[in-house]
Amino acid sequence: MAYLLTINGQSHEVDVEGDMPLLWVVRDHLNLTGTKFGCGLAQCGACTVHVDGVATRTCVLSVADSVGKNITTIEGLQSQQAMAVQQAWVELQVPQCGYCQSGQVMSATALLEQNSNPTDADIDAAMSGNICRCGTYPRIKAGIKMAAVQFENAAGAA
Amino acid sequence: MNIRRFLKTEINGPVDNSRRSFLKITAGSTAGLMLGVSFTASSASAQSAATDAAMEMNAFVSISPDNVVKVLIKHLEMGQGVYTGLATCVAEELDAEWGQVVCEHAPADTAKYANLLMGQQGTGGSTAMANSFMQMRRAGAAARAMLVSAAAAQWQVPAGEITVREGVVSHGNRSATFGELAVAAAQQPAPDVTSLTLKTPDAFRLIGRDNTLRKDVGKHNGTAIYTQDVQLPGMLTAVVAHSPRFGGKVKSFDASAALARKGVQHVFEIDTGVAVLATDYWTATKGRELLTIEWDDSAAETRSSSDILLQYRELVDTVGVVAESHGNADATLSRASDVEELVFEYPYLAHAQMEPMNCVAQVNGDAAEMWYGCQSATGDQAAIARLLGTGTENVKINTVFAGGGFGRRANPASDYVLEAVRIARQLQGTPVKLVWSREDDMQAGYYRPAYVHKLAASLDSNGKPAAIQIRIAGQSIMAGTSMAAMMISNGIDNTSVEGLTEFSYEVPERQVELHSPVNGIPVQWWRSVGHTHTAFSKEVFIDALARKAGADPVEYRLELLKNNPRETAVLKLAAEKAGWGTKVLPAGWGRGVAVHTSFGSTVAEIVDVSVQGNTFKVERVVAAIDCGIAVNPNIVRAQVESAIAYGLSAALADEVTLTDGNVDQTNFHTYRVLRMNAMPEVETHIVPSTNAPSGVGEPGTPPIAPAVANALAAITGRAFTRLPLKLA
């Protein structure tokens, strides 16, 4: 069946089964491979994208339920918060193997878009659904704080 | 792997004899390989006059006319920083401008790209920097010499008067970029590597600094390519239904429902189960759900892990094969009136790297081309060639980033690689991406083996251990692999005992015995291999002896490390930075310590733990590491943080159990790995050193679990002897 999706501001029509998770639509049918597969059960967060601005696990979100939503994948990130997060990730050399980091960046960006000055507890709450087996957690936390400061400075200067 | 003895200081000058003798016993070593410099450029490439192509200076370095220095990385980048680290060594001696350096994985080619500590191309044992440090520097120095020769010829000046700095070759008021000289330099004869003069450490400009690759590899924006992201024209995705029990075989299967699912293209049996292929992963897994398979369990492992551990507990009460013996520990212990004895128990562990196992293969007749995060190039290439009845020259391996490894991707049986090839050869010419689900990854092995240890010691009148007897029971990792001949001697697999043999604390009489029972559970190395369990027993036991002697755990260790200046220095540094004995803890908190040497490096960790009821939280870890020269201190710190997180995950919750041969854990809700909310603050201190670099990826893992256990012991007064740790 055909589904019309809005991803990164563009319309895509895909002909797949309605129970196919959005993850496999973007990866295997639209070739947007920045969004990763880690568990298939919404346990690890590697597949996180923004659905109407909310960090969402796409491995359990069906294509049928994605219709009519504003979907942003790592390839389509544009907000100032996203740029600040990615800059901090490079600055602090957060990624190691890097496989989970698309999901980490998506969750961190969604957090900062809703809370420009998160506490440690806010960060733990927002980020504990994203597993990193390389254990980059301290740098992720530091990266979010650095991005928050940079974003605040940028916003103040504007 | 015990590589310590191969890691003698080597900063500049010739390769030392110990390494030479190690290489002598490994197959295929040549004089060039021993020096690590069989990197002659291929003549076709060197003589090519193309102006836009990269000019190959040697097997590791090419320079393109647009002034980019490309370094081929012979090791797998799976998070440990080999791209940056190895490129730093090349750029240092090449005197390149750091920003002009880019990296790419080298192809599978044992003659050029062997790991000099393994004698085969592969990444593991925390050897990437240790074996590459001199080789990469020589590769850089050789390329530099060719650039200088080219400039000398062009300018008609003596080579000795030419200087090179940050990517610019100069003489008087003449200068040229590397790019401008690349074509001419590639035509210069490769220099005799023994004639190359390398920098002394005081002249290092890049080594020892926190360099980061200027051309980012795209791990922050989703553009880095992993196996999972490889897309090829006409590619199909394969999933495999494996036997629920290890050793089970397909008796019969019905594929009609699966084949009726829209998009499912092929279903067939392979050695390891039933393969289902579709144009995308989701459709393949839906097809797999529709299979009906009858399994033949006549040769399958049907025991529970509790049965296996019970057998091990019985084994450690019996005499094992002697791995090491000093004095007569048995006799001394039997005469002692008071013997401290602890029995330790360790579960099977999954690697649970973030990218589930996967591999892309395309087979055309007797030729295969592969795309995956290849950790064991020589082994995999040989295994594929054997399977296809062809030569290794017909097996091309393209290495991409790996989403974590922790040991899993270097499988001695090339299990997942051969599974992909077995499927692809049924579909000649079609590229096939084999993808394991998380459940496949967790349930199909391979695991860190389960172990039981028994340690017994008597104390002398000063409270110091007089004799210690250690018995270990657990599967051999090396048995049955191609490395068995090298790693198992006199019935002792060194990876089962490393860390308890060559006991770092001074104990006059010691005996280490080993039982290596065989069962059907597939096992493999896991970040820090034998040290994952031996360090725990050693450090928890020493703490128990300190308590028995009424001594401070750090003071007690230092007393027993009097003849071990390196562990002494690292332990003292960690203790000082953590405020051991000076920084007061809040009520209900405990502080624990552990120190251990593995992969040539020593790490001490001191942890603060808070307890609330039956739960506890690790609040802070202070680590100190001596890893020789820290080529990139920031990466060293990152690896210590990572190694701590990985080990802490196992200390707190990781455990694979089996019930009647079926693995109980399926995904991250039942294999509960460390998440951000349980991650402590980590502070890492690096001991300044001019010794050759030693391991960094693994040595931070062994001390964390015993340090946490010892912190809990400080609160409760009792030893914690089972992992994962539970307060009640």
Outline of chain B: globular
* CATH architecture descriptor of the largest domain in chain B: 2-Layer Sandwich
Mean of residue pLDDT values of chain B: 92
| Order of strands across the main sheet of chain A | 2-1-5-3-4
Largest sheet properties of chain A: 5 strands, mixed
Quickly give the CATH architecture of the largest domain in chain A. Answer: Orthogonal Bundle
Biggest β-sheet of chain B, characterized? 7 strands, mixed
CATH class of the largest domain in chain A: Mainly Alpha
Helix fraction of chain A, binned, reads 25-40%
Give the class of chain A from helix and strand content and strand pairing. alpha+beta
Overall average pLDDT of chain A: 96
* Low-pLDDT windows of residues of chain A: none
Order of helices and strands of chain A: EEHEEEHHHH
Q: Give me the number of helical elements of chain B.
A: 21
Percent of sequence in beta strands of chain B = 15-25%
How many helices of chain A? The count is: 5
Q: In percent, how helical is the residue content of chain B?
A: 25-40%
Total tally of structural domains of chain A:
2
Describe the structure.
The complex is a heterodimer of chains A (158) and B (728). Chain A is α+β, with helices and mostly antiparallel strands. In chain A, 40% of the residues lie in helices and 15% in strands. In chain A, strands 2-1-5-3-4 form a five-stranded mixed sheet, with helices on both faces. The radius of gyration of chain A is 15 Å and the shape is globular. The N and C termini of chain A lie far apart (47 Å). Chain B has three domains: 4-203, Aldehyde Oxidoreductase, domain 4 (2-Layer Sandwich), CATH 3.30.365; 227-298 and 357-435, Aldehyde Oxidoreductase, domain 4; 305-348 and 447-716, Aldehyde oxidase/xanthine dehydrogenase, molybdopterin binding domain (Aldehyde Oxidoreductase, domain 4, 2-Layer Sandwich), CATH 3.30.365. In chain B, 29% of the residues lie in helices and 23% in strands. Chain B contains 21 helices and 29 strands. Chain B has a seven-stranded mixed sheet, with helices on both faces. In chain B, strands 13-23-20-19-14 form a five-stranded mixed sheet, sandwiched between helices. In chain B, strands 1-2-3-4 form a four-stranded mixed sheet. The model of chain B is unreliable at 1-51 (pLDDT under 50). At the A-B interface, helix 1, helix 2, helix 3, helix 4 and helix 5 of A face helix 9 and helix 20 of B.
